[in-house]
Amino acid sequence: xxxxxSPRLFAGDHDIRALGEGLLACSLPRAAWTHEAHLAACLWLxxxxxxxxxxxxxxxxxxxxxxxxxxxNDDTQGYHDSxxxxxxxxxxxxxxxxxxxxxxxxxxxxxxxxxxxxxxPLRFYSRELLFSVPARRGFVEPDLMPLPxx
Length: 150
Hints:
Elements: H1 13-25, H2 35-48, H3 54-68, H4 81-97, H5 103-112, H6 127-130, H7 133-137
Helix pairs in contact: 1-2, 2-4, 2-5, 3-4
C-alpha cells in the first residue's frame, strides 16, 4: 500500500451526475467505467439519490451496466461483490469523516483519500480471499480485519 496513486479527478458536478445517471440508464461508454467512476457513482448514489437503496441495488445496477456494454458477470470477470461492498463501506466512512461540501469537492477528496485507493480493500482482505470466486460472486467477510461500520 505504498505504491504511488494518482487518481483522475473530476472537473465538475455535471460530470459526476452524468456518470451516475449513465450508470442507471446503462448508457455510459464502457471506457468511462473506471475505478474513479465507480467511486464517484457510489458517492453520488449515497448523497444525491436517497430513493435508491444502495445496499439492496448496487449489485444489480453494476451487473446490468456491465451486460449493457457486452460484459459478462461470472466467476472471473465483471461484477465483484466483496470489492464493491468494501468500497461502499469506505465511501460511507469517508462521508462520515470529511469536511468537504459540494459533490465535486467530495468526490475528488475521496479519490485522494486512503478509501479511494485501488488497494484499499486489501487492508481488510488477504489477496487470496478477496480474489476468490466466492468473494466475487457474493459478499464474504474479510479475513484480516472487519470493514468499517458507520
